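Input sequence (436 aa), recorded before submission:
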Amino acid sequence: MIRNFRLQTLFLPAFIGIASLLYLYGILSVPFHPDESTQIYTSSDFEFFFQKPSSLFWQPIPADELRQHYRLLDPPLTHTWVGFARWVTGQPALPADWDWSKSWAENSAAGALPDPGLLQTARLAIGLFFPLTLFFAFRAGKALGGERTGWIAMLLTWSNALILLHTRRAMAEGLLVMGVFFSLWALTSWKKHLWLSAIPLALAFNAKYSAAPLALVGMGAILWNAGENTMPWRQKLIRLAGFLALFGGITLLLNPFLWAHPYQALTAALQARVDFMAAQSADYFSTETPLAPATFLQSLLAMTAQLFFTPPASAEVGNYLPQTQIFIDRYLANPFNSLLRSFAGGGALLGLMLLGLVSLGRSAVSKIASDKKRTLVIFIGAFIAEFVFMLATTNVAFQRYYMVLIPLVVLASSVGINNLAAKIPLPGRKTPGEGD
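Predicted structure, token format:
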């Protein structure tokens, strides 16, 4: 038993290490996305904070309107971390932001196109979190369905075509996926100190705001805590206050634009987000697209297609396809980079996800230990909350916008695969109902 324990203890980090090296090896093969330039450009806020913190505060008449616009619009975690990585390696920020109204050559001449060294530094800064992504996928899967489910979750994460593309760029998706897996593990496992789940939830939220419903699930889990229903409401409210203070404190710390005029800055941020979504939606629907989420059914079909069937989308629009198409073709020529992105492969994963959800739902309403029931109910609640939120708020069907759902899909599919594997008769294994 001791020997088996040691083998398992060594095998997990060995697998994560090898899988992560293969993941990082292909990081520069990923086609460039202009939004990477924006993250590198805005990463100069890292230096501005230490040179003059007040330059990041929201002002009614800003000294740099473009930078303040990005502080209002985008979560801070990605460009802050990229800025730290640049500072450590001595890399400068880009002098100009990418302008989508200009040509590739004009953006390059303006200094908005990162050189390979700077791009590699920014991508590696995000990619170095992939080992944690695999580890948190394992722990979350183990919490849901046991060790085998954890291993399946790691394998599905490592081989997922959308993760291989979208998380290997200097953009928010890498930190988002890691943060969501981390949050799901915390919500389903940190029973005695659930209020500390505010840490991973705040990281996920500040990577991308689409993770906001998970914070609401965390609040609900604190107020309803299976196995602790005898806990006085006063104690539950104290835990909730600690959760909110920790979540709010991390968010405030990462967003200096809120420090001087918090109410006005928050109002401006909400308005900037509304205006951006309206402009983006108008632009999206002005072009012919088969994935226009104008109704609930169209939104559901678009989400399903992007999560399971469409090829990995290196670009959302065709502005710069003449310059990037050769790199896109080269990337997709590797079959591993588009694994299961077909009608058959996507249909199989969709079926496995639904099987997993049905299994989790049946287990949650059955007579099982209260701790296990709590784990399953919290995961199902998180799954429903995120999917409903994305259906209600996603106004353009860009593939990377649905990345917040990938950890939930992976974990539900892992449960489905595990349940199927348990039913396969193997030598020496008793099938359900078989006598001694």
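Checked by second reader. The chain has a mean pLDDT of 91.
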